[in-house]
Write a structure and sequence with these properties.
Layout: E1 29-36, H1 44-56, E2 61-65, H2 73-76, E3 95-97, E4 100-104, H3 119-131, E5 138-144, H4 151-159, E6 164-169, H5 173-188, E7 193-199, E8 203-204, E9 210-211, H6 219-226, E10 230-234, H7 238-246, H8 250-253, H9 258-273
Parallel strand pairs: 1-5, 1-6, 2-4, 2-5, 6-7, 7-10
Antiparallel strand pairs: 3-4, 8-9
The structure holds adenosine-5'-triphosphate and magnesium ion.
């Protein structure tokens, strides 16, 4: 029977045959944070990597790339040719970069090979990444999601208790339409929205003026109406994309930059919202 997510709450004690009944926490992982957006290309992976690195300065952090069809984490963290090994119990050892633990399907297949799977295979892969990886003790496991409101989001919410969602949006209304759907999905699944990161908010001209790359839409009034905190505004800056291309995200390559400062400030808000 189809499950109606609108009837679900992660705090529910009902014992009906809901697919959400199999939710388990991962031993020794204190908080799972999903980085999500309805729309592709708005900067989820950029936010997930830099947020994980910023949290990693004070906490034990893992970063799970749940974008099975389009993994970005190995390249963004300069770990393209790394191959995880398994222990005697067939548990995968995560790759470690800049002090954080990483896992991605991108470590297990060639970068140019496509994964062509139906939903049940995705579900199994997400399950294994959560439960068959030696995450050990983590304060935060940051999960980089693919765009949309599909199988991966549902698999994650059904398998584990997600402490909260960081949603990512760019300023224009075209992006907001999809963001609203994503926020609606998480809310209906009973998962808390920790806040919104507005990415590519503006660009600074060489003389310091703010240039609006994307037209400013109704994002702020939407956030007000839903009482969602804006965690930060990240400017568009080629140093952000260059850092990701080169495998040294801006929080590592230019920790004093205005962009990195925003990521550090977001990390502080997450620490306050989800204390360890
Ligand atoms: N603030 C920024 N300034 C400059 N470039 C940025 C910024 N944020 C993201 N980018 C660049 O935009 C592109 C898309 O970002 P990213 O891959 O993080 O988006 P995504 O939402 O994860 O995409 P997908 O939906 O495909 O997973 C990347 O090349 C990234 O480096
Ligand atoms: Mg991505």
């Amino acid at each position: 029977m189809a499950h109606d997510p609108s009837s679900h709450s992660t705090h529910s004690t009902s014992s009906t045959n809901s697919p959400f009944d199999s939710q388990k926490s991962i031993p020794h992982v204190k908080h799972i944070i999903a980085v999500s957006s309805g729309k592709g290309g708005v900067g989820k992976s950029t936010v997930a990597t830099n947020l994980a690195l910023a949290l990693g300065k004070k906490n034990k952090v893992g970063l799970l790339d749940a974008d099975i069809y389009g993994p970005s984490i190995p390249r963004m963290l300069g770990a393209l040719n790394q191959k995880p090994t398994a222990n005697e119990h067939n548990k995968l050892k995560p790759i470690i970069r800049y002090g954080i633990k990483l896992m991605s399907i991108g470590f297990l297949v060639e970068e140019s090979s496509a994964i062509v799977w139906r939903g049940p295979m995705l579900f199994k892969a997400i399950d294994q990444f959560l439960n068959d990886v030696l995450w050990d003790e983590l304060d935060y496991l940051v999960v980089d999601l693919p765009p949309g409101t599909g199988d991966v989001q549902l698999s994650l919410a059904q398998k584990v208790l997600v402490s909260g969602v960081v949603t990512v949006c760019t300023p224009q209304n075209i992006a907001l339409i999809d963001t609203k759907k994503s926020v609606d999905m998480w809310t209906r699944m009973g998962v808390k929205i920790l806040g919104m990161v507005e990415n590519m908010s503006y660009m600074k001209s060489p003389t310091g003026e703010k240039i609006q790359l994307f037209p400013k839409g109704d994002l702020d009034s939407y956030l007000d109406s839903k009482r969602i905190t804006k965690l930060g505004e990240i400017p568009f800056n080629p140093s952000v994309s260059l850092g990701s291309e080169a495998g040294v995200p801006v929080v590592e390559s230019q920790p004093q930059s205005a962009e990195a400062e925003v990521f550090f400030a977001i990390a502080e808000q997450i620490r306050t919202a989800l204390p360890v």
